[in-house]
Structures are given as structure tokens and as C-alpha cells.
Amino acid sequence: MFQATRRRLAIWYTAVTAILLLLFASGFYFYVRNTLIERIDDTLNHVVEVVERSLVIEPVSTPPAMSPAVLAGQFQVNVEASFRNNSNTVEDDHIDLEWFSPTGELLWSTFSQALDIPLHPNRSGETVHISEQLNPSEMILRQVTDRVEIGRQVLGYLRVSHPWFEVTKPIRQLILDLTIGTISMVIGVAAIGWFLSGLAIEPVRDSYQRLKQFTADASHELRNPIAMIQTNVQAALAEPNLSSSEQQQLQVIERITRRLGRLVDDLLFLARQDSGIVKPQFVSLPLDGLLMEVIEEQKVIVTQQKIHLSLNFIEDSEDIIANSNSHPITETEPFTLQGDWDQLVRLFTNLVSNAVQYTPAGGEIKIELKQIPKIKRQPTLGKVTESWEKNHSLLKFEALQVIIKDTGIGIPPEALPHLFDRFYRVDPSRTHRNSGGSGLGLAIAQAIVENHHGQISLESQINQGTTVTVTLPLHPSGL
């Protein structure tokens, strides 16, 4: 329980820190990315300003018939003189220039091949994808396009491009660094969270251990006084001179003392179970014979209440039916498992007595013991060896299952999730007969099943009955 709580605390510490780190890393990533893009845009705009200042603009009196320059009213741009000195400079900075006529015709470019991209005058910068016939490293460009004007006369368009890898290269390195840093931080926080959760839960663990020890000590110390009271009451009841009223009072005291003794025994068992003081003593035992003994103990109550109690053995898909008065014996002992005899007797005594207690007169209780087959696994490579066949026959079944089904008053659906809680009792108004129980029977049953590495489940419907299923492995220790 404490390990699970400590594990949950450490997971919460780690999860919260991981989320905060993820948010920080994401924010830092977008901040750096946007900063890099802004720097590139500033660089492109600066190049635009420099190139525009270096443009050679000449007046034109009589436009020639064939001219490589762009005419704009009385002015034109001398393309060769304007861009002859700029090409080497921009190549050093991985920047490419393009000059377009006022009509959008490409007149000069540093690209080896013209880009099939429409003109979009934009000084704020845009990211564009170029055609696939170019170098794959230049598939994405960051561009700034400016319209060059004198007054209201458009001289042409200047487009400046920068390769996108200048952004992706540092961004990829940043992502790698952030990933490594975040993972390292999460691992460190997980280790620190595990350590801190252990410190936080240690006082609770100590308090719980002291409480369990107190319960065990108190239960142990109460057993002797209760036994002495019960002995003295029985001795007093043996006196021949008692009046009927005195005898009735002593019988009430004996009944309450007996109930208190059972409560103390249950508390002591659970306290020792929690503290791990008592370990189950696993021996090879016949579960069918154990169930017969349990049913034999309930015979008197069953006979008085006229309840039909049956025990069914299902061996290898063949039903061998027996009632509480019969004792079939099998030569192969198919229902033998490794378990603690005393604990299993207590387990099934609690379950059967509950079924008897809450089944009305004339009702029926069916107990079924069957084998759970093991999933067959074929040997690899198709080789069937003699040793494998021997082991396969020995491990034909992996568990035994006991199903106790009654036709009692049933349990409300809202009470089912709490039935295995300690001291939990269903509404007393639904009790068929006053059992005097303490609410610890099913908690003890669950503890015993867990000791044997088994499973216990309970299903019930109002006024139709309850079914308890207990599955016990043949070898609880895994051997």
C-alpha cells in the first residue's frame, strides 16, 4: 500500500514537472524560431535598402527600340551597372537577388534557374516553396519583395531571397538540445520525486505500523480475559441451583463473550497478516476433502433451516456429483494443490457460513469445485521431446476454482464495491437472521486468497442470490 502511494506521488511529481518543462521548452522553441525569422527578415530588408541605394537610374529622352533596361517614364534602371558589383557580395551571405520589370518580367537573377514563383510585394517577409528541379536544400526560401518607385513611376521589383536552412539548421540543433535537456530533467525529477515521496510517506508508515502493532498486541492480550470469562460463565451455567432468569442472563453473557472472542480472533489474524508476522505454511492438500469437512461442520444448521446443500466436483470436463453426505475418493487426486490448510478452512468456512446465514429456509446452496485448464504451448521448431511431453502432462491444469452459489436475499448493487472493506456491513434490515458478524469475514477471505496468489470475485442480485468465485493456483509460490 505504501509503495503504491509512494509510486503515485513520484509519478505525480514527475508528470507535473514534465508538463511544465514541456511548456517551457515549447515556448522557448517558438521564441527562438521567431527571433531567427525576424533576424533574417531584418537582413533581407537591409539588403533591399542597400541594393536600392546602389541602383543606377538614368534619364531617357528617346527610348531605344530594343533595350534590356526597364523604362519608367523618363527614367530607366541600368541593370548591368546596378547589379554588377552586388552579385559577389550577396553570394557570401547566401542571399539571392532578382530584378523584375514593371510588368513582372525577370530581367536579372543570381539563381542558376528562374523561379516559378509569382511576385508578391511584401516587406514583412514570406516563406515560399520553390520548384523541385532545383537543389533540394533550397526547396524553401524566405523572401522579401519591394516595389521600386520614383514618385508614382514604377521602375521595377526587387526580390531578395534567403535559404530556409539558415533557420532549420539551428532550430534542429535547438530541438535536440531541448529534448536531451528535458529528458535529463524529467529523469532527475523522477529520482528526486521518488526520494521526496519516501520522506513524505515515512511518518505515515511509522504511524500505521504502530497502529497495526497496537491492534495485534491488544487482540492478543484480550484473548485470555475473554477465554476466562467464557470458562467461568460455562462453569456457572453448570450449577444446578440456578433460577431460569439467572440461567438466561448467563447464556446471554456467554453468547456475547463468544462473539467478542471471534471478533478478537479476526482482528488478530488481520493484524498479523498486515504486519507479515505469520507466513502461510504451504503443504500439498486435497481441496475436495477440505470442502467436505467444511460442509460437515454446517450440517446441523443446514438441517435445521431445511436448506439443500450440494457439492459438485468437475474433473476434466466430467461431472462427479456428491452431496454433503457422500465422500467420493479419486485415485489420481485431481484436486490437490499447495496451500495452508488452516487458512483455507477459515476461508471456505466464512464463505459457506455466509451463504447459509443469508439463505432462507427451503433455499439451495450449490458448491462447485472444478479444474482450470492451462493454455497449451507447443514446443518451438516442431520438435516434441519426451521431457516436454512429461512436463505437459504434469502441468495440464494450472488452478482450481470453487464457486459457491446460493438462492439467498442477495446484496444491493451499491454495496458490492465495499464488501471486502473491513467492518463494512450491509444494511442490517436486510439480514435474514442475526449473524452477530463483525464485518471482517470477507476481508479475511480476501487476505487468505491473496496469500495464495489467487482471485476472489462476488456477484449478486436482490432476492435471487449471490455467487462467490474463488480461483486458487496449484502452486502459489510459482514453483
Automatic annotation (TrEMBL):
One of its GO terms (molecular function) is phosphorelay sensor kinase activity. Its EC number is 2.7.13.3. The chain crosses the membrane at residues 12-32, 174-196. Residues 217-476 form the Histidine kinase domain. The keyword Phosphoprotein applies. SUPFAM superfamilies: ATPase domain of HSP90 chaperone/DNA topoisomerase II/histidine kinase, Homodimeric domain of signal transducing histidine kinase. It catalyses: ATP + protein L-histidine = ADP + protein N-phospho-L-histidine. It is found in: Membrane. InterPro entries: HATPase_C_sf, HATPase_dom, His_kinase_dom, HisK_dim/P_dom, HisK_dim/P_sf, Sig_transdc_His_kin-like_C, TCS_sensor_his_kinase. It comes from the Bacteria. Keywords: Kinase, Membrane, Phosphoprotein, Transferase, Transmembrane, Transmembrane helix, Two-component regulatory system. CDD domains: HATPase, HisKA. One of its GO terms (cellular component) is membrane. This is histidine kinase. It comes from Planktothrix tepida PCC 9214.
